[in-house]
Amino acid sequence: MNANVKRTIEEAVLPPLVALVVALIVGDLLILAYGQAPSAVWRLLVDGTWGNAYGFGQVLYKATTLTCTGLAVAMSLRAGLFNIGAEGQLAAGGFGAGVAGLALPAGTPAFLAVPICVMAAMLCGGLVGAVPGALRAKFGAHEVIVTIMLNFIVLALLNYFVSAKLHVPETLHTPEVHAGAMPRLSNLIGAFHGSAANWTIVIVALAAVAAWWFLFKTRAGYELRAVGLQPDAAEYAGVKVGITWRNALIVSGALAGLGGINFVLGYKGYYEDGFTGGAGFLGIAVALVGRNHPLGVVLAALFFATLSQGGLAINAMVPKQIVEALQGIVIIAVATSVPEVRRILRNAVSKSGGQN
Amino acid sequence: MSTPLSTPLSAPHDTKAPAVRMTGIDKRFGPVRANRGASLEVRQGEIHALVGENGAGKSTLMKMLAGMFAPDGGTIEVGGRDVTGWSTAQAISAGVGMVHQHFMLVPTLTVAENVVLGREPVGVATFDAARAIREVESLCEQSGLHVPADRLVADLSVGEAQRVEILKTLYRGARILLLDEPTAVLSPPEVAELWKVLRRVRDGGATIILITHKLDEVMHVTEHVTVMRQGETVARMATRDTSPEGIAKAMVGRNVDLGVKVAHGGARAMGAPALEVKNLVVRGARVERAVNDVSFAIQPGEILGIAGVEGNGQTELLEALAGLRPAVSGAMSLGGFDITALSVRDRGDVGLSHIPEDRHRRGLILDYTIADNLILGQQHRFTSGAAIDVAAVMAHAQAKITEYDIRPTEPLLAARTLSGGNQQKVVIAREMSRQFVALLAAQPTRGVDVGAIEFIHGELRNAREAGKAILLVSAELREVLSLSDRIAVMYGGKIVTVLNRADASEEILGPFMTGARREVTA
Questions:
Q1: pLDDT in the model for residue B310
Q2: Is the pTM of this model over 0.80?
Q3: What is the fold of B275-513?
Q4: What are the pLDDT digits (tens) for A75-84?
Q5: With an 8 Å Cβ cutoff, are A235 and B367 in contact?
Q6: Max Cα-Cα span within chain B
Q7: Where are the beta strands (DSSP E) in B380-485?
Q8: Where are the domains of chain B?
Q9: Lowest mean pLDDT among A80-84, B29-33, B285-289, B413-417
Q10: Best B349, B354, B365 residue to mutate vs chain A (most A CBs within 10 Å)
Q11: Using a CB-CB distance cutoff of 8 angstroms, which residues of chain A are in contact with residue B32?
């Protein structure tokens, strides 16, 4: 078991740490280039995020959505597929939750309304994921192309539905849901007051645990990862590769769709056109930095959420675009450096006479 | 540029200095020490064998000689000159050429174009095709490597393609040729032809280093042999003073039974066949009928060996039997039970076991642990509810690691970290420990060391004694001859003959394998 724990740490925890270190070093240089003192800017960033309850609540809120899209991308990558469609799936999930919340009569008790809305979100996301999944399984259509294109189709369709049928006049959002809204965390902990953090975070945390259990503890997960690593060997082991691909993209879409409830049920209470704001695409970076491991995805989501919220906090001293530059640099650094870091550590262990 | 033709075969050389001298070579890849103080000394104008088990460090040593990477310690001398840590470009210009195991040819170019690639003769700012052909033809003439210079490489046989690889090396002026397992893909007549060519090239003054697994080749063509074990050089012998047993002992460090036990064969009770194939037709990736109307039956307790040059339908036949490739027509049955329409998993459950020909592609998930690989294909038998029963998987792994002597013994190591022989043992352990009626064994000892070969052959014989039917497909004719009760030869998708072991020999099978003879027996 010890070897397992070690591997988990190497796979899931190390990359976000590397990301952190790289962000610190490069960030220092960027801040210096603006003639500011790095320590002051960092203090501002930390104060504005983890340093106060409101900022921390915003970090949690943003990390919740990113965890979902990160899990979605990670799930598909584990099956050897690249789902670039999390943006559309996230939007579809939010739309599904919003429509379900509108359709339910006002006063539906939460223990009924919340599960129904959550299911609606996952169903809609899953449906959008099923399209590239089925096309890949049946015709071998490349999922990268299909998911990218489907983003435009889905976002345009949703825009049409909202603007033509469902919008509140003068806006691009639907009326408020009648039932299924998530309470804010500030109801429980007063200090979170004003932040968007809400109970979605609990559902998403459970989803992350479920994704971990599914991937690493179940037979279906064993087969899914086998398909991702070596499709020919999986086929030899009696796994139906095409069906596994299809199912992986459905689950992936459902996970992205789940993220939609964070905004729709947890924050605003209605679906709004364009609420995704790139969180689906950022999910690719989250999965990459999290090395497709649910634990790593959660940590990476927290990291990117911190950067995003921190950008607002440091805007007074340096342009907030600095954090966007940092995001890009971190992604490149993690993508290129982590296997290196792992190799170096392993050498160090073997040199110091450690096991194996 | 001076014409390269004058250099390769008639360059003057100092006969006193050895062609190659490598001493105290250390090379480490991460935690793996590929070479530790390895040495090699090759005389001018000899054919020198470099042998050793998989992972003994032979290829690493050769790649350092060819300049592909630098040693961590030690010195490399070529023709008496210290060249330690040189580049590939320097190695090539000093006349060291490597003939790769996997051909690096452009199939859509002609032989001449491939040979001159990178050193094309140039006319007035254009490629001088006529001169390229002339030069290559004259090189063919000099070296005795006959290949039509104007043919497309795509149209060549494997043996011819290999000759092009050697020509390429000679064209670049190589006087020291490194060949990495050159006979792996050749039929016996092509192998004989290769030896003729290599001797001729040597007689022209070149030095040849041959990496090989096959001890009969060492005995047949080389003057000296260097044996490596675990990164070290353990023996250097004159070939005429040693024997295959002596070399094998040096390779493994203990006595090895190389004995070609002739199978007992003879008359068997003709009951219901365990595995039967009738008029099977299978489509290949490029060929319409890769398996073309093949029929055979295997009795319980019988090994049917399929001999043949690779690429004559063996792969497609096995994939169709395993359920990995659909049959166009025909029928397959297992223990009297029609399996033609069954899925891979159902065939396994009915009693089909399968050692696939490529363990890196199909037989193992290299990034999975040994324990997880030991249940591959039987994962549905190790579950409790939706979850994998980890305790059962670990208990299974511990038992099989002990029973099959898989090393290292840590079940949570990734299969990727094992040596070729131990990887294959994982596959064998898994496939032998399921309930089965018939076993498909494809290239069961490819790329594994002498000790593991002995073990795997023993396992196959035990399975036969236990009444299993075995279909053995191997590119190693000796393996087919030593294990099979009957031998079928596949050529061009058909079974061209079936012989009893007692009636078969390399000489008899050779012409069938090349298509020179065929007699379709019922």
A1: 78
A2: no
A3: Rossmann fold (3.40.50)
A4: 999 999 999 9
A5: no
A6: 76
A7: 383-384, 387-388, 438-442, 469-473
A8: 6-252, 275-513
A9: B29-33
A10: B365
A11: none
